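Quarterly update, task 2.4: nicotinamide-adenine-dinucleotide-bound model.
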Amino acid sequence: MIIVPENQIAELMTPADCLVAVEEVFASMAKRSAYNFPVIREAIGYADALYGFKSGFDRANLALGLKSGGFWPNNVQKGLANHQSSVFLFDADTGKCRAVVGGNLLTALRTAAASAISIKHLARKDAKVLGMIGAGHQSTFQLRAAVEQCSFEKILAWNFHPEMLSRLEEVARELELPFEAVELDRLGAESDVIISITSSFAPILKASQVRPGTHLACMGTDTKGKQEMEAGLVAAATVFTDEIAQAVTIGECQHAIERKLLSRADITELGAVITGRHPGRSSPDEITLFDGTGVGLQDLAVASAAVAHAVSRGTAIEVDF
Ligand code: NAD
């Protein structure tokens, strides 16, 4: 069995490697050669923790396994990240455990890859202004991955806790892009692409604040009850997602579905755009929206790539198991 510890991931996997792996698995999902199993997420009644599994099987790449972990809110006091996860990969021919891979950095990289892929396929090619909503742990990964997809000339940002915006400003400075902290009205009025990555449980951005032609990558809503976009904005957009079953239950679409403003038939898997089965954006004025709910197959894809890189570079730790 191979072990790839958390502290090796940064050396092994670039954002570009993650984009390739996630794009490939989104395409496999659309071809029905890869599928996710139902997600388990439980409040365990200890340490205020939320613990769960995301699992699946990608027949094309023989990636079988799960990501397990969750949210431990008191970890900060212990000097640890609140989100903790590990990926377990199994041999699809024998069921033997093939690898254990640190999943913390990979989660941030695969989530950023998903929104970057949506920007690559759905944003207007002439997009110049990137709007960021959210300034937590994931936000800098999102920003770094997004700027690889379009020739952005400016970053606008808003956060519920404005004091956190300095971390995005620092990254923008490093990327040599002008940065402004703005109100939501201005962010919506000037942005060509907007990424939302917050843990909000109430709508932040309204339909009236978004201009025609915008691409929205909604990445924060991954649980029942969370919400970043007004339901009417989701209904007004052409909606894409990683997985429809998750979008309508735990994703940004859940509220528009509940209010019958949107139906499952209105939602397209991003994989269908990647494989060319769906044309994606149909006009420069269309508002496109990607509901990125985060699927287990993304985790298996990036963890498999990390194992392959560790093996090819001779850094993989092998143990008898
Ligand atoms: P974080 O705790 O580091 O940051 C939280 C962010 O949400 C901050 O910007 C904070 O200001 C904002 N926020 C907190 N309370 C808010 C409120 N009441 N209203 C509006 N904004 C509020 O979290 P993170 O690690 O950056 O993750 C952000 C979100 O992304 C979480 O909801 C997380 O579950 C989700 N996530 C999604 C995926 C996916 O695949 N889609 C993957 C990882 C994380």
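Highlight for this quarter: The longest helix spans residues 104-122.
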